[in-house]
Amino acid sequence: MAAAHQPLTTALNRIRVGSAPDSWGVWFPSDTQQTPWRRFLDEVTEAGYEWIELGPYGYLPTDPARLTEETAQRGLKVSAGTVFTALHRGPAVWDATWDHVAQVAALTRAMGARHLVVIPAFWRDDKTAELIESPELTVAQWHELTAGMERLAHQVRDRYGLDIVVHPHADTHIDGEENVTRFLDATDPELVSLCLDTGHYSYCGGDSVKLIETYGERIGYLHLKQVDPVILSDVVKNEIPFGPAVQRGVMCEPPAGVPALEPVLIAAQGLGIDLFAIVEQDMYPCPPDQPFAIAQRTRRYLRGCGA
């Protein structure tokens, strides 16, 4: 008789698992539909995570002393900050972009983190889902995007000692395999790495394991989530924007969706570097009592994968 399948028991000792405000339905610095920040910190701790991201700047306290006190008393550490950029729009947006990045980078460094997750601007409004610019970039805009990202990486590293990791994201210009490959091929690997989000990459038709195996030297950070393939099929068929798709539950907890996370984690472990793997399940908006149980089950699932 064949042996029953057992969860992976070999420890993925290069993978550091955490979670993020996003897994508690947090997309904005302030929103009455979101989980209050103290509740997030209490619940993420109780769910078994010791690493967190800062989330939208202003959601958690921005005073480093206060945030250090709040995280330390719960045994939490910060893995990264997050910024949104629209660098494809060229020099006209640089000063405003840098002002925002500098704020987040300063807090990120003060909290002892070493990474800044950089998300390209949406081509839809993030609340109304209205189309606000073309989903396709011109050649000139691609140049502005890639050159601007390298400039950003230089300054963030020189001034704050942080590494940027660029996050391919649905409804942005860096999304699926074609655009991610184009972006990587046009940027300096010494400056620009990726935050591979398994859910967004699958949402956009990409294969996370293939990306790790092909561009392993460019993977600097992971976001873990899954996509419900049935809901995604309807989203693609009906060209539903990302925000409404999230409200339909397109991003789901493991192991209910795709991609399978165990092969992703094994491939990431095989890179031989220390990597954060931050659970980041898009759920805006969600009932206040929903995130905690999902976070607990997800942490238990990841332990069963060896992480």
TrEMBL record:
<dbReference type="InterPro" id="IPR013022">
    <property type="entry name" value="Xyl_isomerase-like_TIM-brl"/>
</dbReference>
<keyword id="KW-0456">Lyase</keyword>
<protein>
    <submittedName>
        <fullName>Inosose dehydratase</fullName>
        <ecNumber>4.2.1.44</ecNumber>
    </submittedName>
</protein>
<dbReference type="InterPro" id="IPR050312">
    <property type="entry name" value="IolE/XylAMocC-like"/>
</dbReference>
<dbReference type="Pfam" id="PF01261">
    <property type="entry name" value="AP_endonuc_2"/>
</dbReference>
<feature type="domain" description="Xylose isomerase-like TIM barrel">
    <location>
        <begin position="42"/>
        <end position="243"/>
    </location>
</feature>
<dbReference type="GO" id="GO:0050114">
    <property type="term" value="F:myo-inosose-2 dehydratase activity"/>
</dbReference>
<dbReference type="InterPro" id="IPR036237">
    <property type="entry name" value="Xyl_isomerase-like_sf"/>
</dbReference>
